[in-house]
Amino acid sequence: MTLGFAAPDLPATPLFVIEEAELEDWRAGLPATQAAWLAETGFSARLGEAQPMPGPGGAVAGVALGYGSAAARTRGRFHLAAAAARLPGGAYRLAEWPEGMALEEEALGWLLAGYRFDRYRKPDPRDPARLQPPEGFDAARIEAIASGEALTRDLINTPAADMGPAALEDAFFALAGRFGAEASAVRGDDLLAQNFPLIHAVGRAGPQPPRLLEMRWGSAGPRLTLVGKGVCFDTGGLNLKPGSSMGLMKKDMGGSATVLGLAQTIMALGLPLRLRVLVPAVENSVSSTSFRPQDILTARNGLTVEVNNTDAEGRLVLADALALAAEEDSDLTVSMATLTGAARVAVGPDIAPFYTDADAAAAALAEAGARVADPVWRMPFHAPYEAMIEPGIADLDNAPAGGFAGSITAALFLRRFAGAARYIHFDIYGWQPKDAPARPKGGVGQGARALLDALPGLLGL
Predict the structure, then answer these.
(1) Position 8 in a domain
(2) What sign does the CA torsion over 43, 46, 50, 56 have?
(3) Do 149 and 127 share a domain, yes or no?
(4) What pLDDT digit, counting tens, does each position of 255-279 carry?
(5) Helix count (H) and strand count (E) of the chain?
(6) Closest Cα to residue 228, out of 447, 456, 455?
(7) Which residues are catalytic?
(8) Do both 111 and 148 map to the same domain?
(9) CATH number reported for the structural domain that contains residue 67 in this entry
(10) Which end of the chain is more exposed for a tag (fewer CB within 10 A), N or C?
């Protein structure tokens, strides 16, 4: 879906964003009827409050929005989005807001508050509350970011019956077509002929053939390669997941969805770089052709992998894709994947952990994540744990025994395939477990906005 601002020439209701500490002084400067109305209705400027104020003839003269206290704001983000969801349809404009308010964050949150996934139900007939961009504000950039996030959410929210490898390929090619990018796919047994054995092994039992999708866009500038895990549904394979763990596995392609949303934003903004996107799209299913525990597979780059758990399949398909990426020069290679439960245990569902050997890149991502309200956290490529992914019978183990450091060992596994390029790996969750401002329960992008904001520094744009 497309999320956008109201046209700047429309009549718009003014919004007054008020902090709790400033409420008394601000109210004292209002006309007596409005001040009395706010007092009578109990408006206290708490975060998320939205109180219309009366004007002549009963018309709405403006809306007071609560911005709470600095302490309250540390407990969340996208604070105006909560109020936006309570307003009737129409155009609104910011007339007054606190000094230092993160205007871009709040404007983006307002747009994202309008996101609806209505593919399987009747669309909401109500008009949304649309915000006019403030003067001098880069509305096109924020709209591009919001639309990229909407694509990510739509892809994740679509159930596997309608978002299998073929449908993910359709979405991939449709995105490429909109921006004049080149796209190609290697499918089924052609994966073996073209040396993608791990992607084939994981996906060969699925109802749709596995495939590797590739997109290229841009003719000049630094090279950025994005690799996204596209496991459209994960049963766990022969190491079958219990039902409680399988319930959210339509989101196991969240890495590919996030990469595609980011790619859309990059292309919409026309960033001066050469973009390459790789997505291994598979289902990890159970059949007579499923790959098995104790199988030893040979990856594209020649490394052998002992399969000690068929539910650790994401790193296998990413391995072949990263090995392909490493065959060309890249200034930065980034993988995104809903890879391990261990990452969720470590940082919870709201933070995107990432791995890199480059201290400057890590600092840039951390600063960008804080700046754009996309929380990320650096995790270590801890070299002493390399021995944990070396089983002895093969070069690598896809699921080391013991359960320790599961996200770290997965990242170390992937690093073996990333080559000499500067490499960043995100182990994301891709799901909002309950409603929050600008983030309804369901699929969500993580790490993409932080990476987008950091790209100028990372690539010298």
Answers:
(1) no
(2) positive
(3) no
(4) 999 999 999 999 999 999 999 999 9
(5) 16, 19
(6) 447
(7) 241, 315
(8) no
(9) 3.40.220.10
(10) C
Round to whole Å and give the CA distance between 378 and 382.
12
Overall number of domains in the chain = 2
Kindly state whether residues 122 and 157 are assigned to the same domain: no
- Inside any domain, residue 189: yes
**Helix axes of 139-157 and 254-269: crossing angle, nearest 10 degrees:** 160
93 lies in a domain? yes
**Positive or negative: CA dihedral 98, 100, 102, 103:** positive
CB atoms within 10 A of CB 298: 15
Of 36, 86, 29, which is closest to residue 63 (Cα–Cα)?
A: 86
Mean per-residue pLDDT, 360-365: 98
Range of the structural domain that residue 220 is part of:
142-459
Instruction: Quickly list H helices, 302-403.
Output: 314-325, 341-347, 359-371
The one-letter amino acid code at 283 reads E
CB 277 within 8 Å of CB 324? no
Pairing of strands 223-228, 274-284: parallel
Q: What is the CATH number of the domain that holds 216?
A: 3.40.630.10
pLDDT at 403: 86
Phi-psi region of 302 (alpha: psi -120 to 50; beta: other; left: phi over 0): left
Q: How confident is the model at residue 1 (pLDDT cuts 50, 70, 90)?
A: low
Apex 82 CA angle, 76 and 84, nearest 5: 145
Same domain, 351 and 268: yes
- Among candidate residues 67, 99, 131, the one where a domain is terminated: 131
Put the strands of the sheet holding 396-397 in their side by side order.
296-298, 304-306, 396-397
Please name which of 357, 348, 351, 355 lies closest in space to residue 370, comparing C-alpha atoms: 351
246 shares its domain with 328? yes
84 pLDDT band, cuts 50/70/90, is: confident
